[in-house]
What we know:
Elements: H1 5-17, H2 19-34, H3 38-41, H4 44-50, H5 56-64, E1 69-74, H6 89-99, E2 103-109, H7 115-118, H8 127-142, E3 149-153, H9 159-168, E4 175-178, H10 189-200, H11 206-216, H12 228-238, H13 254-273, H14 278-281, H15 284-296, H16 303-312, H17 320-329, H18 344-350, H19 352-362, E5 371-372, E6 375-376, E7 383-388, E8 391-396, E9 420-425, E10 428-433, E11 443-451, H20 454-462, E12 470-474, H21 479-482, H22 491-499, E13 504-508, E14 520-526, E15 543-547, E16 552-555, H23 563-566, H24 586-591
Helix pairs in contact: 1-17, 6-13, 8-9, 9-16, 10-11, 10-22, 12-15
Amino acid sequence: MSLHPTVAAVTARIIERSGPTRTDYVRRMDHARDSGVARAKLSCANWAHAFAGQTIADKLTMMGGQAPNLGIVTAYNDMLSAHQPFERFPEILRDAARAMGATAQVAGGTPAMCDGVTQGRPGMELSLFSRDLIAMSAGIALTHDAFDAAIMLGVCDKIVPGLFMGALAFGHLPVVFAPAGPMPSGIPNAEKARVRAEYAQGKVDRSVLLESEIGSYHSPGTCTFYGTANSNQMMMELMGLHMPSTAFVHPETGLRDAPTAAAGRRAIELAVSGTCRMADVIDEKAIVNGIVALLATGGSTNHAIHLVAMARAAGILIDWTDMDELSAVTPLLARVYPNGSADVNAFQAAGGVAFVARELAQAGNIHSDVTTIMGSGIEAYFQEPSLIDGELVWRDGVSESLDTDILRPASDPFQKDGGLRLVKGNLGRAVIKVSAVKPEHRIVEAPCAVFETQEEVQAAFKAGQLDRDVIIVLRFQGPKANGMPELHSLSPLMSVLLDRGFKVALVTDGRMSGASGKTAAAIHVSPEALDGGPLAYVQTGDIVRVDAETGTLEAISIDLTTRDRARRTPAHAASDSWGYGRELFSAFRRVVTSAEEGATVCFSGEET
């Protein structure tokens, strides 16, 4: 089917807008490629240092100077269940390389913090900044210039975007991303949500909550809800950086290790052929495909920030208007928790990534004429891996959904538009994830209650002060203020207010998790309060309207553009971003760009 005209128009606009920066990026990658094979440029002393610690057999291979050397950048730690399997991946990749007469080395590691551990804690203020630090760490790993291709090991929230950004600085190389897969399903998501809501109301104690959480997060592998981590994996598939349909293969199966070895072999094949650089894979069409994949599956709102920074690393400029226009024509194909009751394991069993890729391509919602690590075209991503007599083979995925409560075709979607909306007005620009919000809850007009910390909101809830129609305004949570922590701990209490029959919404310059729930939340408000944004002038009692249907974010009882604003003194944030390592990132807070510009320090000094 021909490309949808809106997808074509948005892509054309991105190409035009990105002309100078994309041209400069490609020029730099061409220069790096044309300067020759990395190992040929290293002096004998440099090269000797590079393989001094290798086995005798690997040393002999590397001394020959002809075989490709694969650089492994790993975000392994065993604090993250999703990353614990990466402990064994380097040896799998080394063996795969040796079988091809090549070598593989761990070039370096990156930090990988667990947002699940730091939710509601001071460490969450470092979460978003860790993405840029991961990009820098990946750059340090690959700057040894001793590699002919790279493979990136990462799954979770900020980690894949950071690896993506860092790898693009070496976009003259072929780069493959290898996932670890989700843990098996735990207790039903509805039961988990019920216990969380009861704990928020004081109906159950901490021991009951802990038992429920352990039943949810219980083994190696990615958390099984469709938050940022699993949204990452969906996007890496549709951007053509994974081996096909490997995102949601469990880590503790033979089928996990076989595609991992195949990923290593593929990276080496691309190095030998001299084709398919990451700079060729990640172009404007690939970025649009990633956005559409996110929208079609109700993915994480965090990517309204991450995708901007990720695209910028390839010289591509996108904004929330692009995402909003694409969302308007993208069918919602999946209902996965928190947008439904099923988890990613049920999603994969129903048809998974291969089904989504085929449906979006055939409906004209994504570009099929792209370059991927598999070659030309998107069609390879309509397939799934399997083991037959111990051999890895790819075969066509299902042509029809096996559970239409979880996954539907583009001809009969859950809704005709995607899961993200842009809202704007005299309070700034923000995004709302509406795929989990019922239509009757998408428009809220009510007096606001203004807060400056999550703890203040929680205290007001416990005191019964929010038992009314209310718009919670939580400000000074942007990247310049405190690093823009996720505010996921507010989701249960807002759900409780909704269940009590009140109209409730959140307006914040902070972030919500990819697991944000069923209430309307206008998040990432830009400009943020600390950066001169209108939220600094809002006062408790002002009437605010959040309307995801018309795209409105307005304070309607005051004029924040002229007279009324001049009569008010803006609020000031308390400066307490110290302790728990936060003081180490004060330079980041000073130079970070706005949320709509990717909330990044990596490109803050560059002309666009």
